[in-house]
Design goal:
With 106 residues, the chain is mainly α. The N and C termini lie far apart (53 Å). The protein is built from 5 helices and 2 strands; from the N terminus they run αααββαα. It is 75% helix and 4% strand. It has 2 domains: 30 residues; 65 residues, no CATH class. It is flat and about 60 Å long. Strands 1-2 form a two-stranded antiparallel sheet.
Length: 106
């Protein structure tokens, strides 16, 4: 029973935190620095999700060139920087990962 109460409490806190922005933004004037800072939130969150998966292999830190995830990530970053196209970036990363895995398995 205490596990379910903990899950419900965590869900309520998460909901109220997110809903507060929706309900309060119409009533409260936020400073410009706040709005400028919000632009970086998606990039920071995505980086925090992707980076650990990129630099680890089999549960251990692997920063070598034998890590196919690093090769694919660098290729995806290059394509994103040059084209600014999300679909091409994803495709380049996927193809780069498959190619790196195949080449490194030799």
């Amino acid at each position: 029973m205490s596990v379910w109460l903990m899950i419900l409490a965590a869900g309520a806190v998460t909901f109220l935190t997110r809903a507060s922005f929706i309900f309060l933004l119409d009533r409260v004037k936020m400073p410009d620095w706040f709005w400028r800072g919000l632009r970086f939130v998606p990039v920071a969150v995505l980086s925090a999700i992707i980076l650990p998966e990129t630099v680890t292999r089999n549960g251990a830190l692997d920063l070598s060139w034998r890590n196919p995830q690093i090769i694919a990530a660098l290729l995806a970053v290059l394509v994103a920087w040059r084209t600014r196209n999300i679909l091409l970036t994803i495709l380049a990363g996927m193809i780069g990962l498959l190619a790196a895995q195949a080449l490194l398995a030799l």
